[in-house]
Design goal:
Number of helices: 12
Radius of gyration: 19 Å
Number of domains: 1
Structural class: mainly alpha
Strand content: under 5%
Order of helices and strands: HHHHHHHHHHHH
Distance between the termini: 46 Å
Length: about 300
């Protein structure tokens, strides 16, 4: 059974190989991942209000880790020390990043939270290439965030929500690097399964007490569905996409995420945007795509 399950996981990855579509298949996975994350985040507003950001994070990660473990059946006792370290670091990062992001969207609009999120990996990627003209991209994105934070009458959100968004952005930068590494060091989806189990364990002290007393049958079904939307489906798609396409191409496509977040916020949460905020979203998208393209060059 274990061999058959791993073979199925490897077959899933093989379907996304260059012979099956390569970069085009990876690009489609990126778009599906972004849509799943942002619409899943928007649909999570009631769960966050009920269980709190930490409780909603723990429930999501717990359900996602159990579902993927049943499918993949990772060989826990067969991994090397380096593989365990990778899974532990990525899992811890995933738990803290998700908790920070949910804490942010509980306090500030979804589009603004995701735009601030982008400043983390964008700044790290830009500064990593040295002090050059590429530094203009974080500045452009910062102007975009400022535009998003003003609704024409005043500043939106609260400082703590902004701080949580910056924390999620830092975690996102680390997550991208670690996901690329863990995808290369494990077979199939075993690395993702291990990291999600670690993430669920790390999130337990933060969210268990706030979630369990309020959980009922409807909540179990709701959180299981949301766990598929975020993080199970997008994390799986991103891991496979990063194996089948250059990191630069992945980064350019992921630049669309603030725009998708704004659409999800408008459709699901009725968070309208002024022309200034739309322009701010466009600046963040352009800055992220420009920085990634410049790095590729």
């Amino acid at each position: 059974m274990e061999e058959r399950t791993n073979a199925e996981a490897d077959a899933l990855i093989a379907e996304t190989s260059p012979a099956f579509g390569g970069v085009a298949a990876g690009g489609l996975m990126c778009l599906m991942s972004m849509s799943s994350i942002q619409f899943g985040a928007a649909l999570s507003s009631s769960a966050i209000a009920t269980y709190g950001p930490a409780g909603a994070t723990w429930l999501r990660l717990a359900f996602a880790s159990v579902i993927l473990a049943i499918v993949v059946r990772p060989r826990i006792f067969s991994y090397s020390r380096d593989q365990w370290v990778s899974a532990l670091v990525l899992g811890t990062t995933t738990a803290l990043m998700t908790t920070s992001f949910f804490s942010a969207i509980a306090r500030i609009p979804l589009g603004l939270a995701v735009a601030i999120d982008f400043l983390g990996p964008l700044s790290v990627a830009t500064i990593g290439y040295g002090l050059s003209r590429r530094l203009v991209w974080p500045l452009v994105a910062a102007f975009g965030v400022l535009a998003l934070a003003h609704d024409g009458e005043g500043w939106v959100g609260d400082p703590l929500g902004v701080l949580f968004a910056f924390g999620a952005g830092t975690g996102w930068a680390i997550y991208i690097v670690l996901t690329k590494k863990i995808g290369a060091s494990f077979k199939g989806l075993e690395g993702l399964s291990m990291s999600l189990m670690v993430a669920a364990v790390v999130a337990t002290p933060l969210g268990f007490s706030g979630a369990v007393p309020k959980l009922d049958a409807y909540g179990l079904i709701e959180m299981a569905g949301l766990a598929v939307l975020v993080p199970l489906l997008p994390y799986t798609l991103e891991l496979i996409a990063l194996r089948r396409m250059p990191t630069a191409s992945f980064g350019i496509l992921m630049s669309l995420e603030p725009a998708i977040a704004a659409v999800a916020g408008f459709i699901i949460l009725a968070q309208p945007m002024t022309l200034l905020q739309m322009a701010g979203t466009a600046l963040v998208v352009a800055a992220s795509a420009g920085a990634t393209f410049s790095a590729r060059q």
